[in-house]
Amino acid sequence: MANDYTICVATVGGGLSVSPDGGETWNRIRDPLPSECNVRALTVYPDDPHRIIAGTDIGIFRSDDNGGSWDKLDSPMESLQIWSVAVDPADTETLFAGTRPEAFRSRDGGKSWQHLTMGVNMNCPVGTPRTTNVIVDPRDHRTVWAGIEVDGVYKSLDGGDNWIHMSDLGPDPFHGDIHGMAINAGPTTSIYCTSPFGIAQSTDEGESWDYHYFPKFNENDNRSYCRGMAIKTDDPNVMFVGNGDAIPGITGTIQQTRDGGKTWQRTELPVAPNSVVYWFGTNKAIPETMVAASLYGYVYVTDDGGVSWRKLPKEFGEIRSVALTPN
């Protein structure tokens, strides 16, 4: 059946909306997540394509039915902003939540949580730093990566107990304003980060970084701003970066590569984004389908691996994350 998948859209101020039919119709979640809460983070379990974790400003929630219903997990994060959530693919009882600041970890599926002292710089340019990404390394789940807004990249080699601040990504502090992260665990593993400057790549475990800068949208722009990124789940040579003229910006695009980052092209979208393209949703069970969202509420879907995209009729307020699950 066409559109036989579910899309979850997380917003600031508008809670969580779920479409069980690929964007045709939408249900707004009202319990136990309030309909006007802030939801900044979604992730799908690696071992169960129908199970989703949501990070909010009032705690952490889990759904086992494609976002149709939710349960609140007891946690010490009910008064913190949760900016990222991650599930250990080798042990899905281990969960991470990136907060403002630092992070928390659960080793029992969310029944109990420990604060992770990462040592982030509390004097960053945006005030209290945000842990915008947590990634458990697919090669060794004891290695955990974290991207900080604004304090660069941190790495743990012992599952999150201790953290190392990796080398600076560039001379400007905002080179280390980490927005998106991904790991391509190929013959030569690459760690990718996006920032206001572009996309950075490290092939030496975060010891050094090379930046790719996308073309500016307008001559007077400060830079070509980047937010989220995604790697196609069945082809690591295909990657996508959310791009725009600024934050929130007035226009944006999806930059994509099909040769592992050697060359990049701006995607032709049917309707120009009204702000930076902010985030992506993928699911390895349906690799040809992906979801992208602009910060100011446009949702785009591809069913052919990113070759062509369509804009959904439904529009939202501020979108911060999206998730995709097969039905």
The CA-CA distance between the termini, in Å, is 10 Å
What's the helix-strand series?
A: EEEEEEEEEEEEEEEEEEEEEEEEEEEE
How many β-strand runs? 28
Q: In angstroms, what is the radius of gyration?
A: 18 Å
- How would you characterize the largest beta sheet? 4 strands, antiparallel
* Overall spatial form: globular
Number of self-contained structural domains = 1
Lateral arrangement of strands in the main beta sheet: 3-2-1-28
Low-confidence sequence ranges: none
Can you name the CATH architecture?
A: 7 Propeller
Oligomer: single chain
**CATH topology type:** Methylamine Dehydrogenase, Chain H
The total of helices stands at: 0
Kindly estimate the percentage of residues that lie in beta strands according to DSSP.
35-45%
Specify the helix fraction band: under 10%
Top-tier CATH class? Mainly Beta
CATH superfamily: YVTN repeat-like/Quinoprotein amine dehydrogenase
- Structural category: mainly beta
Overall pLDDT confidence: 96
